[in-house]
């Protein structure tokens, strides 16, 4: 069974430690210190770093961690610091990451990827989705196009509904405030915002969350939804037009 630990880094980032048969992987170590502290506490080494994209708050820890542990660094963008191998979808990852699959998810940057761990035994599977998808929201478009990001979210939406999402930031409360602002009539969204607010009041993380849950309340995964379209007065628009309007309004929120 996989074991996943979440570590707070920087202001509001999460790095993840994934323990699989054969070794230990750090995903998006935006800072080295919390990872070093984990390795010391657990008395273990680090075999591999995987990065979802090249932004500093996701890979700044690569340098010190690689230097101290000799781990390999992989990701889908050659701009990632200390990268050993640039990955493309379909590539077979080395041990201990051999069960992970690479999903190409451009939009936030041109070369974002997500790492998908398929279900294993009782574990429903996990997606490490960086800044592509957040609970209640999605990443900003820095280098790619809104259409690319839309397609990337569609490919995530096609994963098994029980998949647990491990996102790159704790942005959930802000995202659900926006979702409620857009759709004040939605009871599901209001309940979700209240639940998230309660967790944050006691400084608890709001992640992971299941894809199934997000499909009900995250507006960026629901551009087809008639109540959302009605709230936006975009009943006649395409899904991409609704998604684009949501992204633009969130940028200004
Ligand atoms: Zn980013």
Please characterize this protein's 3D structure:
The strands form three sheets. This protein has a six-stranded mixed β-sheet with strand order 1-2-3-4-5-6. Strands 7-8-9-12-13 form a five-stranded mixed β-sheet. Strands 10-11 form a two-stranded antiparallel ribbon. The longest helix is centred in the last third of the chain and has 15 residues, at 187-201. By secondary structure, the protein is α/β, with parallel strands linked by helices. Strand 8 and strand 9 (126-130) form a beta hairpin. The radius of gyration is 18 Å and the shape is globular. The mean pLDDT is 97. It contains nine helices and 13 strands. 45% of the residues are buried. The protein binds zinc ion. Zinc ion (ZN) is lined by residues 53, 55, 108, 131. Residues 53, 55, 108, 131 line the site of zinc ion.
Topology overview:
Elements: E1 3-9, E2 13-20, E3 23-27, H1 33-41, E4 48-51, H2 56-59, H3 62-69, E5 72-75, E6 85-86, E7 101-104, E8 113-117, E9 126-130, E10 133-134, E11 137-138, H4 146-157, E12 164-167, H5 172-182, H6 187-201, E13 209-210, H7 211-217, H8 226-232, H9 239-252
Parallel strand pairs: 3-4, 4-5, 5-6, 9-12
Antiparallel strand pairs: 1-2, 2-3, 7-8, 8-9, 10-11, 12-13
The structure holds zinc ion (ZN).
């Amino acid at each position: 069974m996989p074991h996943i630990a979440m570590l707070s880094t920087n202001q509001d980032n999460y790095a993840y430690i994934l323990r699989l048969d054969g070794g230990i992987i750090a995903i998006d170590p935006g800072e080295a210190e919390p990872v070093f502290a984990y390795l010391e506490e657990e008395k273990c080494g680090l075999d591999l770093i995987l990065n979802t994209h090249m932004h500093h708050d996701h890979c700044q820890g690569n340098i010190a961690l690689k230097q101290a542990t000799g781990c390999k660094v992989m990701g889908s963008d050659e701009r990632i610091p200390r990268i050993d191998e640039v990955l493309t979808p379909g590539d077979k990852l080395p041990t201990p990451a051999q069960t992970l699959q690479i999903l190409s998810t451009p939009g936030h940057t041109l070369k974002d990827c997500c790492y998908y761990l398929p279900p294993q035994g009782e574990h429903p599977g996990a997606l490490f989705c960086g800044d592509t998808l957040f609970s209640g929201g999605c990443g900003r478009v820095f280098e790619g196009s809104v259409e690319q990001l839309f397609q990337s979210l569609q490919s995530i939406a096609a994963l098994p509904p029980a998949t647990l999402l491990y996102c790159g930031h704790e942005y959930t409360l802000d995202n659900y405030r926006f979702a409620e602002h857009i759709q004040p009539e939605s009871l599901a969204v209001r309940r979700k915002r209240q639940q998230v607010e309660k967790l944050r009041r006691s400084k608890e993380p709001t992640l992971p969350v299941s894809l199934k849950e997000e499909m009900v309340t995250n507006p960026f995964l629901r551009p087809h939804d008639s109540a959302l379209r009605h709230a936006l007065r975009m009943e006649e628009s395409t899904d991409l037009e609704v998604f684009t309007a949501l992204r633009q309004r969130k940028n200004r929120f």
